[in-house]
Amino acid sequence: MSANTFGNAGFSVLLPGARLEGRCGPTNARVRCHLGLKIPPGCELVVGGEPQCWAEGHCLLVDDSFLNTVAHNGSPEDGPRVVFIVDLWHPNVAGAERQALDFVFAPDP
Fold it and tell me: Where is the Aspartyl/asparaginy/proline hydroxylase domain (predicted)?
């Protein structure tokens, strides 16, 4: 999904005590793949009112167009929660639609 502005990849680090309140992604044309790298106890992700579970070394697919919150309720001794996030095309977006979205939402040169 790198040919348009909705495609991203990067590390997400959340310190103990941090909370990202309800937010929605900009589109339902993507799903986000979260690869758990360091998941201390007390970390939570709720998407569309449904609790999700990260696991170290495993991927979790999330449609972030739904309201989602993230929290790290662990102690400072637990250290940060670290996930690698990469955006993928939603499987229901057809090839022609992908091409159109890439054209319309191409990143600035």
Answer: 4-91
* Band (94; pLDDT cuts 50, 70, 90): confident
Enumerate the β-bridge partners of residue 68: 23, 47
H/E element, 95: helix 95-104
Are 44 and 68 spatial neighbours (Cβ–Cβ below 8 Å)?
A: no
Q: Domains in the chain and their CATH numbers? A: 9-102 (2.60.120.330)
Q: For 74-85, what is each residue's pLDDT tens digit?
A: 999 999 999 999
DSSP letter at 106? P
How many angstroms separate the CA atoms of 69 and 44, rounded?
8
